[in-house]
Structure formats: structure tokens, C-alpha cells
Amino acid sequence: MFENLTKKLLASLRTVSGNARLTEEVVDEVCRQLKTNLLEADVNVKVAKDFIDAVRKKALGTEVQKSLSPEQQFVRIVFEELSSIMGDKAVPLNFRVRPPAVIMIVGLQGSGKTTTTVRLAKYIREVHKKSLLVASVDVYRPAALEQLATQIKALEYDLFESPVMEARPRAVLAKEEAIKQNAEVLLVDTAGRLHVDEDMMTEIQELSAVFSPVEILLVVDSMTGQDAVRIATAFQEKLPITGVILTKMDGDARGGAALSVRAVTGCPIKFVGTGEKPTDFELFHPDRVASRILDMGDLLSLAEKAETTLDKVETLKITKKIKKNDFTLADFYSQLQQIKKMGSFENLLKFLPGMTGFKQQFQNLTPPDTEIRKIEAIIQSMTLNERMDHNLLDGSRRRRIAAGSGTQVEDINRLMKQFLEARKMMSRLTKSPMGKRRGLW
Predict the structure, then answer these.
(1) pLDDT tens sequence across 97-109
(2) Which of 42, 61, 86 is the last residue of a domain?
């Protein structure tokens, strides 16, 4: 996400590079470029103007710190203002009510409401450890009920089911069931429409009166750009929206919605959907997103993703095997499966500083995920004994594995070389004083 905006902003900020100080002429030129960048990213015109005015005022009125170059100082100012227009800090869900805390999901059809409801249910259970009941009052689209039921049951969460197919009575029954089950949270998926209309708003207002929700979260497709702001404004006029969830952020190379919604409506962005997997769902941290936009990385979010995704028992077991220099191809395969849970490698790279330039430099190389699939096919084509003891892999066995995995013997030779080098490096790290001091092992 933000690829186009990041490239353009970085190119504009390089205008400051090489200047001994932030003169009015330099600041005016880079601000002109920044404003063009923001408008091309489909950022609201007033938001872009206010942003540039704030950056210019700070740049010309701030004493440049001796420890920072003019370029670093200007980047810091842009970072602070980007964070500010998106809300500065993350706004968590509000559970400070008598249970059940009702959270309503609203939005237009096609924005990703039902998928978002499932992801939010998973987030509430795994991060907040709350018991919950999930319900749908979308009585107009049977596929929505089936989609939600299939995914929620697959997660083994409690689902409200009823033959009643009228929105308001169904809502009353869902709330009664949540109270009966002593659920801490009642998560409700509502019906969407192709456009904002009076009938839709009237129904949602009636449902809101039944549920008395602590949160009404508006799901918006981030790829709609300026329309996302208009949709949020229209909903806000009729409902006390407490937060916005932006979906399809992985496909939004511009970033206009993320930079405009909060500034125009005053409503915080609470979550973003960043891919197709259930794990591609994040609490929205404005400062961290600003850091990603400026290609400064987001290691905090990466660490949190690892903490909530990776199997701690499995990781500890692998660590012990590494210490004994007993790390096998079977262990390597297991670790690949663990890391894949965190999302695609391409998405994970976005959390690392300086990846924009890296991706441009190496854009013709084989994508990491394609290479990983090849490695998986090779290991899956091995027998259990071969995975446990790589010394068995003579020429004959390698030719058989290549034929079974649809790869070349050269691919297997390369994998084995990388595996043995990684094994050696991990073994050294476990014995190094630095590794021990950092508490890595």
C-alpha cells in the first residue's frame, strides 16, 4: 500500500538534500511538489492544503537542530504532520460497558463487511480474549448469512442462528441470545446497499436503537479514494459512527482514503485490511503508517504480528534444536509454515525500512513467495528420513526429488547450500556472547 505516494514523496523530499539550511525558496519548492503528490494520491483538496500549510509553517519557523541535517529535519516535520492528519495515535475498541458490548458493522455492499466481521471476531477473541456471539441481520442477501456462518463455524466461534428473516425482530432475538449466553461482545454484521439511501439509513437507525451499540464501525473500500470520504460523511450524518475500517489497503497504491477520512470527518480509522488472509488485519496506528509512507519501516507492528501469530511452543522447540546443532529440513519446513501465517513475504517486506528502493532495484528477481513455494515442493517430495537427515541426499535421491517436485537438481543443490549455511550461522549465533546478552537464546 502507498507505493506510488511513497515513491513520489521520497523524490520530493530529496529536493531538500544538499541544502545547508531550509530557506524559504527551498521550502516553497518542496511544498509545491508535496501538494501535487498528495492531490495525485486522491487526497482531499482541503486536507492537502492544510497539510502543506502546516508543514511550511513548521519548516520556516523551526530552529534546525544541530544533530539533524535540513533534510532530516524536514522529513521529521512531514512525518509529524502525516501522523497528525491520520489521528496521531491508535484508537482501540471500547468495551467499557455492561456486557454484552455490541459492535455494529455497517457499510455499502461490496466494501468487505462480512469478511471484516469475521476478521474482527478473530481479533477480539485472540487479542482481547473476549467471549463473543456473532450475528448477521442482513436478511436481504442469503449469501451473506451463509458466508458468515461458514467462516465463523470454521473458527468454532458462537454464531446466532434463527429462521426469522426480518431485520428488527432478528436483532431483538440476537441481543437476547447474547445476554442469555453471557457473551462479553455481540458482533453484528448488517445489510449493505449499492448506494447510500434513506431506506437503508432508516433501517440501520432502527437496528441501532435495538442494539444500543458501544461501537458502530463503518467499513469502507480504501480503493474508492475520494468516494471513501463522501461515504463516511454520509453515514456520519445519520449514525454516531465511532470508527472506520479501511479494506483492500494492499491494493491502494495511492493512499488518499487513509490520509483524508480522519481529517474530514474527525472519525478515527480503527483498523485496516491489508490482504486476503485472516491475519491481514491490523489495528491502525497513524504514526506507524506515516513511518511506512516515508519508507522508514514499521518494526513495532512486525514484532506484534509475530507475537500474536507464531506458535511459541513450536518456536521454543526449534530454538532448542538449533542450540544442539540438530536443526533439520523438517524443522526448516515447519518454520516456513509458521512464517507464512504472518502473511506473504512481499507484505512482510513493507514493514522493513528502505524497502521501496530495494524493491525497485531488485524488481526483476523471482518474487519471494514463488521461491518459497518451490522450496516447499522440494521438501514435500522428500521422504521423512531424508527430511530428518540431509546427509542421505545423494545424487540419485536428488534427481528423484527434482522429478517429484517439478524442479531442477540445481534448485535442490542451491536449497541445500542455503540450508547448511543457515544452519551453521544459527549454531554460531547461539554460542555468541552477543546473542546471549540480547536474550535471543
Answers:
(1) 999 999 999 998 8
(2) 86
